[in-house]
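Translate sequence into structure tokens.
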Amino acid sequence: MDKKSLYLYYYSMIVYLFGSVPFILYAVLIKPIGAMYHERPFQIISPVFGNFGVYEEGLLVIALVLIILSIILFILSLGHNRSKNGKISNRTIMAPVLLYIFTFAVIGVALI
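Result follows.
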């Protein structure tokens, strides 16, 4: 891997780390807590979050934007590496792919 491909790869993983914070908040903490109430999330007003439904949607949008940006940077990294005939191991490629599959699977389950 050349230097630019490696930087793009690292940037994609850093963006994924920042995107995983709202992802964990949404899919693991906030969405299940909101499902325990008998009211719709948009009817719940919290002194901390304000409108609970808007807070949930905001977390989802932020998580999706950052994770999709991470995927774009990852694809650019692979494309740049391929154009320079660089070598990259299959494990290096598969680790982020598995993370992305897991992330979208958990978001899909949380949306149901």
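Note: The chain has a mean pLDDT of 91.
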